[in-house]
Amino acid sequence: MRTYIIRRLLLTIPTLLLVTMLVFLSIHLIPGDILDLLMSSSVSQASGAEMSSGGVTREWLEQKLGLDVPIHIQYGRWLGNILLHGDLGTTLTTDEPVWETFVRPRIPVSLELGFISLLILLLLAVPIGTYSAIRQNTLGDYVGRGLSILMLSIPEFWIATIVLVFPSIYFGWSPPIEYVRLMENPRQNLIMFLIPAAILGTVHSGPLMRLVRTQMLEVLRQDYVRTAWSKGLQERVVVVRHVLKNGMIPIITLIGLQIPLLIGGAVILEQMFVLPGLGRLIVQSLLGRDYAIVAGAGLVVATTVVVINLAVDLAYGFLDPRIRYG
């Protein structure tokens, strides 16, 4: 187990390097330039001497922000700063620390939204998929299968638009948009997160419902399950002890694959519901062409996904004792 964990952790290093490279370089391919924005709005950043000598020039801004060198050198400086000092650098617009000022305060928001969304996803997909398998070809099975197909067909931003627009038009009500910290007011915080988390978890529950049903049907046909039924065990005992646990490995795999989709959906919903998380930060930074913030937030998101995938792999050994890590 220890050897396996060490090997997987070592494999994450080139993965994260590739992710940071793609994020950092792809930002510079977006049409538009931060220098164009700064030239029109941040002349006040120059000192008095510079102002008196002709004002802020594009060359002065390039040198000040470190953009006067090729992209690969900029990337090397940024990566070296992370590896040597654990620092994500400073923003290009306000010269504030990326980690302390922007990224770290927003991580709890994204984690809370992701956790509640995942919890809702599991509470919907696992019971409905299991019930559909146990009651195969009944009305409940048809309803569950239809619901899973419906969830596969509807994008989260469409449901979010309906939730935001229709109640405000017909009932004069809209979801709260003023962020309240969990420790300050847990009830108000939960109310604010519940609607976007419910949308995100419900939409992404469709594939998991279908997989749970398929896996449960496969396990239900096994000989040891028939033996458990023949012993007269209660249905709950057979399902929980024999069926559900033994069919969870593919389900856990899909959950690990769903988490990046939850993160991607959170980027949209955080913007629509004005949640100050990493997704909204990335959108705002992309609009402002602040490469340092986008790269730093992207690195945090990529690291989170890699760690979750490692946890999913390690969960296999708990679910199936036959699995050994070499």
Characterize the biggest β-sheet: none
Oligomer: single chain
Residue fraction in strands:
under 5%
Number of strands: 0
Number of helices: 15
Reconstruct the topology from this structure.
Blueprint: H1 2-27, H2 34-41, H3 48-52, H4 58-65, H5 71-85, H6 98-134, H7 139-153, H8 156-170, H9 186-203, H10 205-220, H11 223-230, H12 235-244, H13 248-272, H14 278-287, H15 291-319
Helix pairs in contact: 1-5, 1-15, 6-7, 6-9, 6-10, 6-13, 6-15, 7-10, 8-13, 10-13, 11-12, 13-14, 13-15, 14-15
Quick structural summary:
This protein has 326 residues and is mostly helical. 75% of the residues lie in helices and 0% in strands.
Give an overview in words:
With 326 residues, this protein is mainly α. Helix content is 75%, strand content 0%. It is globular and about 85 Å long. About 4% of the residues have low confidence.
Which features would summarize this protein structure in a list?
mainly alpha; 326 residues; single chain
